[in-house]
């Protein structure tokens, strides 16, 4: 009697490939579901079907998915709405799991990309302003320099757009840091700071000064590097 071997069938391999694919799609769709209460399983299926149909005709991925569209759709819905019942993402797609972990880490630059920019800066306290300045500089780290686009053969218009984006993001960083400095100075020289009726109602300490110092160091480094490459 021969020992049985656990050789995955073609169907198992096909399902595993589909699960890995939809796990990536689900990460984007789940955010849409969280922001739109009227999104349901049918909404997700329709959005996925439309996206697949919009792929280029010669796309190999399009052909492969359409051949087993029901399987892909069901796995996607399960991953979006019932993730706890699915195979762990760390096991299914280690690279995606690592990226997701990084995005959820407040100290990681990927996390900064997911954060909303405040609409009313006046409501932020000093600590929150420092955090927003840090986010702005981390987002700026994703700006691709124009010379990279140039070496990749990009059109002059695309290169100019990339440089314009770098300039704007640098200005955003500077604006954020400037808000921090102004807040710090307003607290430092506010005679009412020792009053119980202080409008700021916040006491500056060594950690505040240290936080501002670190932010000033970061913005100095960024602007120096970008000035050297002709950005600002």
Over all CA atoms, what is the radius of gyration?
Answer: 25 Å
Give the mean pLDDT: 75
What is the tally of beta strands?
Answer: 0
Oligomeric grouping of the chains: single chain
Largest sheet: none
Uncertain spans, ≥5 residues at pLDDT below 50? 1-5, 191-201
Explain what this protein looks like in three dimensions.
This protein has about 230 residues and is mostly helical. Helix content is about 65%, strand content about 0%. The protein has eleven helices and no strands. It has helices at about 10-35, 40-55, 60-65, 70-80, 90, 95-105, 110-115, 125-140, 145-150, 155-190, 205-230. Helix 1 crosses helix 4 (about 70-80), helix 8 runs antiparallel to helix 10 (about 155-190) and helix 10 packs antiparallel against helix 11. The longest helix is centred in the last third of the chain and has 33 residues, at about 155-190. The N and C termini lie far apart (about 75 Å). Residues about 1-5 and about 190-200 have low confidence and may be disordered.
List the helices and strands and how they pair.
Elements: H1 10-35, H2 41-53, H3 60-67, H4 69-81, H5 89-92, H6 94-103, H7 109-113, H8 126-140, H9 146-151, H10 156-188, H11 206-228
Briefly characterize the structure:
With 232 residues, the protein is mainly alpha-helical.
Looking at this protein, list some descriptive labels.
232 residues; mainly alpha; 11 helices
């Amino acid at each position: 009697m021969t020992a049985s071997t656990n050789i995955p069938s073609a169907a198992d391999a096909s399902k595993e490939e589909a699960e890995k694919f939809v796990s990536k799609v689900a990460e984007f769709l789940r955010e849409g579901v969280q922001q739109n209460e009227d999104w349901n399983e049918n909404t997700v299926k329709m959005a996925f079907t439309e996206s697949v149909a919009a792929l280029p005709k010669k796309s190999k991925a399009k052909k492969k998915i359409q051949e087993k569209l029901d399987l892909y759709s069901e796995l996607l819905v399960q991953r979006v709405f019932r993730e706890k019942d699915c195979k762990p993402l760390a096991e299914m797609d280690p690279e995606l799991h690592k990226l997701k972990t990084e995005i959820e880490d407040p100290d990681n630059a990927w996390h900064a990309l997911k954060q909303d920019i405040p609409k009313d800066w006046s409501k932020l306290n000093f600590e929150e302003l420092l955090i927003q300045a840090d986010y702005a500089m981390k987002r700026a780290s994703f700006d691709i320099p124009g010379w990279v686009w140039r070496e990749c053969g990009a059109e002059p218009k695309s290169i100019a757009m990339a440089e314009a984006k770098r300039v704007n993001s640098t200005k955003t960083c500077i604006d954020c840091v400037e808000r921090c400095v102004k807040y710090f100075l307003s607290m430092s020289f506010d005679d009412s700071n020792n009053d119980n009726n202080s409008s700021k109602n916040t006491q500056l300490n060594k950690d505040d000064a240290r936080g501002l110092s670190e932010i000033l160091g970061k913005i100095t480094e960024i602007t120096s590097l970008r000035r050297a490459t002709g950005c600002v």
